[in-house]
Amino acid sequence: MSSDATTAVPTAPDLPGSPGQEPSAPHGLGTSLPQTEARAKTEGTFPYASDLWAEGLLWAAILRSPHPHARIVSVDTSAATAMPGVRAVVTAADVPGAATYGRQVADRPVFASELVRHHGEALAAVAADHPDTARLAAAAISVEYELLDPVTDPEKAFAAEALHPDGNLIRHIPLRFGDPEATGEVVVEGLYRIGRQDPAPIGAEAGLAVPRPDGGVEIYTASTDPHTDRDLAAACFGLPPEQVKLVVTGVPGATGDREDPGFQIPLGLLALRTGCPVKLTATREESFLGHAHRHPTLLRYRHHADAEGRLVKVEAQILLDAGAYADSSSESLAAAVAFACGPYVVPHAFVEGWAVRTNNPPSGHVRGEGAMQVCAAYEAQMDKLAAKLGVDPAELRMRNVMATGDILPTGQTVTCPAPVAELLAAVRDFPLPALPKDTPEGEWLLPGGPEGAGEPGAVRRGVGYALGMVHMLGAEGTDEVSTATVRVQDGVATVICSAVDTGSGFSTLARQIVQDTLGIDEVHVAPVDTDQPPAGPAAHGRHTWVSGGAVERAAKMVRTQLLQPLAHQFGMSTELLQITDGKITSYDGVLSTTVTEAMDGKELWATAQCRPHPTEPLDDSGQGDAFVGLAFCAIRAVVDVDIELGAVRVVEMAVAQDVGRILNPAQLTARIEAGVTQGVGAALTENLRTARGLVRHPDFTGYALPTSLDAPDIRIVKLVEERDVVAPFGAKAASAVPVVTSPAAVASAVRAATGRPVNRLPIRPQAAVAVPNS
User: What residue spans carry the region label Disordered (predicted)?
Assistant: First the structure.
């Protein structure tokens, strides 16, 4: 496949192993190599953290605050300690090391001691012989509170009394680009609100901590960044990092929900206190209350354009509600401000961004953070501009799209491939789906499902567009590095790398890289733990780039070790030898042998690192080369709306995406489809609602996830393979950018169907009821 090829995703009959075809054995990069653990997961035998067991096991439970803001007057654990079967109770007074932790800012207490700052904050933990005993003991802890007025409106946080010693303002970014006096002939304004999307893991958080003879502890859990989690936990335990080992168990998917070490620290404290293995499995309510959510965001926009619809200036104010603690809010704000104008050419941009503390649930890293919120807003502005000018929405976007060589409002030049116009044209020109039948037999197609109360005559179809972008890897000076080892013995290769596969398929990719480089079919990926060198967090597609690059470099070093003796024997360089399907051949055909024969019982291994080029923080004007690379997506949404009931059915999502290079077609398709579906949830149903800081209905009856019945037809109409030359393999992150783009596309389609502005996500029924005579 050429480096500038443009490829449509194969339909099901074209994929390896599809019905009607002879099954083939996928091998190496570019093939749909199945995941090693796919069968075990399907059969229910895959070991997750909640399945773990140890001799002498104790069970843990955590006491959480029922209030969003309160002063702690006293904590009495005597009733819990006296209960039969209770082995330990720990509070803030029992934390031997650092009392607070945090990935970017250490501002979050292990246990609240003086103030409770959000609903569900941990106050104490219990270990007991039985899980019911542990829960009863936690409930028996008596806490006297002095209730305080919660600050839940982020706009009021600026003037409110400080909720934290560090103050309420976490970060302010003023972006200045171009001429502040520039104006356009046409101006549109809007105010937009984005709700609190939860990662909603199907498998709730769980873990097992086992004390070690040296006074340390081993923690088995579904971490996505094991070395950082270990270091944070060790600091709180008052132990050196080498006495704390974190072993990654099977991860039941992760989009940010596995990244709170506050779950692991109480577990380790209890194991150290009791000297026994301790297991903790969160309830669904605890899962909703404990982990981070997508930042609720308030956005104000003003777009200036000339009479032809070409953008002149964008002005924006972006306010992120970080909840009680900083977490990754600084990084999320940087992405929101940098991408506030979208993948469009904007000569002048002036953006103010803030992230503030409130007494709402904690916000943090969720796929596409920052970029998703601004995409919904700037695409609404593009729809408004198109309507005001009487221009087709797709055409207006086409007049403004970004390309390689253009400059972001941060002053950074887009050096990576940016085929935005090609992506937009692909979805615009893709045939529209057929209209639903206006017959009783076809009523199941109506919004509301088979038993929907709507009438066919009230249904309007809308078509909407959205363009999205995300950054890959860390930003603003993050030192991105990963280390991998490849070892080969007896015809079997083993990859040792602490990159956690959260469902992204890294383990499969690592196998494909080694197969491609060494011609060895049997490749195993070792389980991840912190005895291995660090590989960094599983976010922003970084393991495909950084950890995949480290695996490739290590495999190439082993390849050189394998080929050098043969090359020396035949008087040629290793570059004149190639490995294909397990055979080593020379360019002239003189040498032909198998990899197994060349190994001759030897063990070969190599360790390598991959570190992308450095970035820099945004300066006081929001300027700087803050991002390593960018990925782009275009989506056309088709929706049916019952304009009397406000019910919305997403009929089809046509997707065109900039992927760099297809490494595993089936896996890539699944990632894009999952991202689109997550975005549809954010557009229509997913909102963790709060009332004065109290989480309402923290369960799957109150928090509505889209099911397979809600998922639309997803048509991947084009994948542009234009390789990024600075990325290993040329591949780009796949799953975040459709999450970013699809909510905006759904909202655009609902606007087209109803004539309503749709300025809030998720879209409420009253916002989808058409205005009279629309």
Answer: 1-39
